[in-house]
Amino acid sequence: MAAKLNDSDLLELMVLDDVSAFEEIYERYSKSMFLFAMNIFKKKEVCEDIVQNVFIDFWAKRKKANVKQLKPYLFQAVKYQVFNHIRNRKISDEDLTRLIIVDISMSISQKLEFDELQAIIKIQVDKLPTKCQQIFVLSRFQDKSNKEIALELGISVQAVKNQISKALAFLRKNMVLEEGVLYLLFLTSTL
After folding, report:
1. 34-43, 104-113, 137-146, range with the lowest pLDDT
2. How far is CA 151 from the centre of its chain?
3. Residue 49: exposure state from Cβ atoms within 10 A (0-12, 13-18, ≥19)
């Protein structure tokens, strides 16, 4: 059942001590977190330790942490563990250089891609019908849950889901960029 839930629902369950929700989060993100760490360290054991430390801390702080977006939170935690590793002098100069290169190159290229994508998405979102646009913005740009949106607008959760589906279908259809590349970053995320 946990595999079908979105990140927000999993976070809510985890705060209530639901171990299966925590396990699902681990299954979804641990591999990509490990690969992110491997891009910096190239040492399997260190990267495994970093990911484990992130999840140990995450579980321990589950009731206190105010996590809005799960994936960015987890990857920021990996980065924090990396810097802890550096601070504790457990990293070579070569690893430190690789970290700086990875961080700078990812930051620049991701920023450029993000800015370009954000501009294109804004143009397309502005073409949505008013209610559909409003719901999509609340969901994707203000990170509100379907339930929060439904309460705020006085409509059913199903109506919110329908409008998000409508917006996603429109955006998928109209988000074709150069050379036919279709950007589906958050367009494919769950309702």
Report:
1. 104-113
2. 24
3. middle
Q: How far apart are CA 168 and CA 98, in angstroms?
A: 38
What does the alpha-carbon distance between residue 149 and residue 141 come to, in Å, rounded to a whole number? 12
Does residue 48 share a domain with residue 132? no
Within a domain: 105? no
Query: Are 86 and 114 in a shared domain?
Result: no
- The Cα 130–Cα 169 span in angstroms is 16
| Predicted TM-score (pTM) of this structure | 0.47
Residue 53 tokens read as 């430390």
Q: Verify that 81 and 136 share a domain, yes or no.
A: no
User: Is a pLDDT exceeding 70 seen at residue 38?
Assistant: yes
